[in-house]
Structure formats: C-alpha cells, structure tokens
Write a structure and sequence with these properties.
The protein is of the alpha+beta class. The chain folds into four domains: 44-58 and 265-358, Elongation Factor Tu (Ef-tu), domain 3 (Beta Barrel), CATH 2.40.30; 61-92 and 223-264, RNA polymerase II/Efflux pump adaptor protein, barrel-sandwich hybrid domain (OB fold (Dihydrolipoamide Acetyltransferase, E2P)), CATH 2.40.50; 98-116 and 200-220, no CATH class; 121-193, Helix Hairpins (Orthogonal Bundle). Helices cover 38% and strands 24% of the residues. It has five helices and 17 strands. A hairpin with a 6-residue loop joins strand 9 and strand 10. The longest helix has 34 residues, at 123-156.
C-alpha cells in the first residue's frame, strides 16, 4: 500500500512539474496585421483627415426638399451614378396636383369668358335687338295711325270722339316713341360689343389665374427631388412612407435631422480634408511646396497627396465621427488635398485616415 502511495505521489509530482514547465514557456507574439502610421518625413506634422467628394467648395452635396411630405417612391439606389436633373425621390403630391388642376380649369374658364367678351356682339343677340326695333316701329305706326284717325274724326265733329279717348291715343303714341328709342339704344349697345373695361378686367383675371397655375405647377415640381449635378448617390436616409421636411429626414439612430439624400462626385475623383491644429499652423510650408502622405487605417497602404486649397479661416475643431464640439476650445485650419487613388484600392467618402504633412 505504501509503495502504491509513493508511486502515485511521484507521478503527481512529475505531472505538476511538467505542467509548470509548459506553462512557463512564452509564446512568440503574433505579427501585427498592419504597421501603424509612421512619419515619412524628417520633420512632419500629423493631422487627422477624412475622405470626401471632389467639390470646388464644401464637401458632399446634401439634398433637402423645398416642400414637406411623405416619401412616395425612391427612384435611385445608394452607389448609383446619376446625371444632373435625374429624378431621385418622389413625395406625395396628391393635394398639390389637385390644386394645379383646379387652377388650370379656372384659368381655362376665364380665358373662355374673355374670348366671349371679345367676340361680342353675338349675331343671334343682335338679330333679336333688330327685331325688337322693328316691332317698336310697328307699334309706333299703329299708335300714330290710331291717333290720326281719332284726330280727323274729332276735327270733323268734336262730339264724335271724347277728349279722353283722344288723349289716350296721343299718350299711346308717346309711349310707342319712347319704346322705339329704348329698342334702338339696346340695339346700338349690343352692336357696340363688350365694354372695354369689362374686357380689361377679365383679361387681368385670366392673367392672374394663369400665373397662379404656373406658380402651383412650379411648386408641384418641387415634390420630385432631382440631382443638382452629376454624381454618385452616397446615402438615402428616409424610406418609403417616411415624412420629410425642409429640415431633412429624422434619423432613428442619431435621433437628429439629416439630409434626405447625399450626393458625391464621381468615384474617380476624391479629396481629403484634414484639420491642422492652430499650434502647428506656423510650421506649415508654403502651399506651392506642400507635400503630404496619408495612411489608410487597417492596412499598410500609404498614398501621396497633392495640395488643392485651404480654407483660410481657423475654426473650432469638431469630432469627425459625429461632429460633437470639443470640451476645450481647440481650433484648426482645414486643408484639402487631392487623393491619387491606386487602381487596386477602394476608398469611400467619410473614411478616416492619418495624414503627415512635410514641414
């Protein structure tokens, strides 16, 4: 029994020593997946940069609607190249379209009435007035003949016709004359056509309705968002059924208002915007002799940069990731470089890189 215990103790001691030995062996470190960004210049200034579209001013093109409404249809996809004027997104325009149709109908009705006034006198109306004049002339002749007969009888024998009957016949003649004058004036008024002031008033109403229709049609066109220039669709933030306004679309993740669409320049052209701390600004070389290099994070790729321009104003630094203001008042100078992108490398606007600028 003692021999067995001794053997087991010995084996346990050997096993423990073996485990301790193996545990003490140091494993060689794994090689890094990529080398960290290093300064390629004897004297260089470090800055953080962000890839952006190639624009003569600003960065990307943020597309906002000029009207508010519900997204009815999205006509493009992210990454798609579009031409200037191409439709990108449709908003629900049912109410505005009905307004345009209503104003168009009102303008057409006003135009028809204007033509009606200009076409006066109408032949049928003038014929009626001419007939009324003829009828008034006939009535006058009848009344005059009756008066002449009674007057002759009265002259022959005053007792044959009463004075009252003679006066009634005379009054009938006067009435017939007055009716004839009215009929003639009504005919002349019809023959003269529409009053110039009525035509002028109707013409102004037609012009006003035409302009209202044109204005409503122009507003209707705003319900279709179009590409302001050639480019690539970088981001589409709303979905079909989402409500958007002139402030943009509500982003669920950031809980902020963001552009409805973001357009960039064609993929062949990219810029890099870096922010140099104001303390390092005096060390910057002249723009004509400025050299810079960027390192793509997560790789060993290093790309030379070509100076394009700088924004000659020192502004407060922002976090490139979410644009929150720094807790301290750090100010930076924006410098824009052109990225000479290798053919075998894919870069995206918004990508952060490390930049070194030679002094």
């Amino acid at each position: 029994m003692r021999k067995i215990l001794f053997v087991l103790s010995f084996l346990g001691l050997v096993a423990g020593g073996t485990v301790a030995y193996i545990s003490a062996i140091t494993q060689p470190p794994l090689p890094p997946a990529f080398s960290p960004a290093t300064n390629p210049y004897a004297k260089g200034i470090y800055a953080e940069g962000i890839i952006e579209s190639d624009q003569t001013s600003g960065a990307n093109i943020n597309v906002y609607p000029e009207v508010l409404g519900t997204v009815k249809q999205i006509l493009v996809a992210e990454g798609q190249e579009v031409k200037a004027g191409a439709p990108l997104l449709l908003l629900d325009d049912s109410i505005q379209r009905a307004t345009v149709e209503q104003l168009e109908s009102q303008a057409q009705a006003a135009f028809t009435l204007l033509n009606e006034l200009k076409a006066q006198p109408r032949k049928e109306t003038l014929d009626v007035n001419e007939a009324q004049v003829v009828a008034a002339q006939a009535t006058l002749k009848t009344a005059q003949d009756e008066l002449d007969k009674q007057q002759e009888a009265y002259d022959l024998n005053p007792k044959s016709i009463s004075k009252d009957a003679l006066d009634t016949a005379a009054n009938a003649v006067l009435t017939a004359k007055a009716n004839l004058v009215v009929a003639q004036k009504q005919r002349d008024l019809t023959k003269a056509g529409a009053w110039i002031y009525d035509i002028d008033n109707q013409e102004k109403q037609y012009n006003a309705l035409t302009k209202s229709h044109a204005s409503a049609s122009a507003l209707l066109a705003k319900y279709t968002l179009r590409a302001p220039k050639n480019g690539v669709v970088l981001a589409i933030n709303p979905t079909v059924g989402s409500f958007v306004s002139t402030q943009g679309a509500y982003d669920t993740y950031t809980q902020m208002m963001v552009p409805v669409l973001v357009l960039g320049s064609p993929r062949a052209s990219l810029n890099l915007r870096c922010y140099v701390d104001e303390i390092l600004v005096p060390r910057l070389p002249a723009p004509a002799s400025m050299k810079a290099q960027m390192s793509v994070r997560g790789s060993n790729v290093k790309i030379p940069l070509r100076f394009v321009r700088m924004q000659p104003v020192v502004s407060p630094k922002i976090e490139l990731s979410d644009q929150r203001l720094e807790r301290v008042d750090v100010r930076v100078l924006p410098i824009i470089f052109r990225v000479e992108k290798p053919a075998d490398l894919t870069l995206y606007p918004g990508q952060l890189v490390d930049v070194y600028i030679s002094e």
